[in-house]
Amino acid sequence: MRPLRLLAAMGLAVLGISSAWAQPVLVAADMRQQQSLDGPWHWSIDPYRDGLAGFHGEPPNARTNRAADVIAADVMQAKPRTFFEQDMQLSPVVSLPGSWIGHSPEMRLYQGLVWYQREFPATAPKPGTRVFLRIGAAEYRSYVYLNGKPLGEHRGGYTPFAFEVTKLLRPGRNQITIGVDSVRTANDVPPPVTDWETYGGITRSITLVTVPDTYVDDAFVRLTPDGSHIAVSVKLEGPKAANTALKFRIPTLGATLDGKTDDAGKWEATLPVPRNLVRWSPENPKLYDISIDAGADHFADRMGFRTIAVKGTDILLNGKPIFLRGISMHEEELGANPVRAMTPAAARALLSEIKYGLHGNFVRLAHYPHSELTTRLADEMGLLVWSEIPLYWLVNWNNPDTLADARRILAENIRRDRNRSSIVLWSVANETPTNDARNAFLRTMIGDVRSLDSSRLVTAALLSGREGNKIMKIDDPLAADLDVMAINTYNGWYTDDALEDLASQEWRGPANKPLIFSEFGADARAGYHDPVASPHKYSEEYQAAYYRATLAMAAKVPFLRGMSPWILKDFRSPRRQHPLYQQGWNRKGLISETGEHKLAFDVLASDYAKREAADS
Ligand code: GCB
């Protein structure tokens, strides 16, 4: 077999040539015909990044350094005298997706580059079809090769990316290689310090998606804000994208709409709402199959229809005021050793705790875009969703490249998920410091949300100001730019406030806007009990008392329209190393990592059950 060589072009990819970022959207890719590449992959660490550059930093070159070895795994068998050091095909095997934290005990703290490689059989793409390699998510920076040729790179750990491989696929054996580098710098999104385990590796499914030559790359279907029409926006990609006839259908409603794309391959149209349409809501999460036929493509998705708006201090779902009974969660499956490999069953287990255990109707998917499995399940189960990008804490607000990355990640998230009726809030940031550079940066993000999706509300999790002991102020200038204000508040946990005093704290904010408490919480180690009048922090009793006190405070905030306390489940966090109570876990969960309910779970559940009864 001929050795596969790293090409000079790989150097271009490493230098981040901009065309490498041009990505197809492949909206609703998970509903398309696809071949899964999940399962066994070889893996090898590369701490000095030898696979990406020569030993003097020059672009990789197969003759002078070993960079090519990673890709050219079959060299040795072909030419016994070739110098060769890294052999992926002899490297150990793991099952993907799943972060490398689960590959071996030593990988627990590894930060750097890891190579993955597998072979797979393929047939040559049929004439008139195209094939894309799609990776659901990889943390943080990915370098992707097919049959020795670089396909491109991606930065950002929580959104999908895809490369066309039609011409590179060959009949029979194919080889795919992915380098994933988990190291983030101060310019990245998020920056290095976060209060969660960022889980280096490939954490969502890898698939080959087949579409016709010209196909529906992007489609956005929703109710108009007044609820009178269904609006459809479509973008075709391919040689016949322009001036092509299309047909939009909702078969069970007998609704159809015909049209034709413009010169740019786009089509925008509206259809009066069919009389028999049932609106989606948490109580009745009605979903419809929809389709778009365009040339040879038959595009399908499944979605609900609802409106979301604000009026004064109210949040209106389908025109009716609603209180968001929520909780925050990270993307981390239940169990003693999670590896961020979300499955339908794992997502269902978490969302069921919210919907049926807590009597919730809302979930904050913190602090980054979660798996599409989760947002699809929220549609199906009837949970309203807050979706977020990881502009978290200390972002480099002055760097135009950071802004460009953040805008791309936001667009990748919104384009992936804007047909999910469950999502009602797009959040642009969490607990960021107020200053001019940050305000300008986040205003750009808010503008992007509005131009990508004007049918939903924009929010951000802010920090409050404080006047003495009694007055909490929403004084972040960004509040004026948001539809819904959101505040993370930890009085009585990170502060010395006595729990008895919380209920008399008064919240002041800009008039006429709804507020959500996007976080409040206290750590408790499951099973640590301190049943006395004044329990210690970290005990289940303190956490329960903290919840009672904070809920009493919340009940008095006249413009509060929802909450998503921190957090459903204990989650891994490298910052949390208290030897007795934390041991590498943030313990603010209402359930432990293995699913035991703490006392505070029932405190929140009974508050929500009362609100639910009052609202029905
Ligand atoms: C916060 C952060 C969240 C942390 C949490 C905590 O305000 O938004 O990421 O995990 O507090 O536990 O301190």
Automatic annotation (TrEMBL):
Residues 214-306 form the Glycoside hydrolase family 2 immunoglobulin-like beta-sandwich domain. Its EC number is 3.2.1.31. Residues 1-22 form the signal peptide. The keyword Cell division does not apply. It comes from the Bacteria. Belongs to the glycosyl hydrolase 2 family. InterPro entries: Beta-gal/glucu_dom_sf, Galactose-bd-like_sf, GH, Glyco_hydro_2, Glyco_hydro_2_AS, Glyco_hydro_2_cat, Glyco_hydro_2_N, Ig-like_fold. Keywords: Glycosidase, Hydrolase, Signal. This is Beta-glucuronidase. One of its GO terms (biological process) is glucuronoside catabolic process. It comes from Sphingomonas trueperi. One of its GO terms (molecular function) is beta-glucuronidase activity. Residues 308-547 form the Glycoside hydrolase family 2 catalytic domain. Residues 85-212 form the Glycosyl hydrolases family 2 sugar binding domain. It is an enzyme of class 3 (hydrolase).
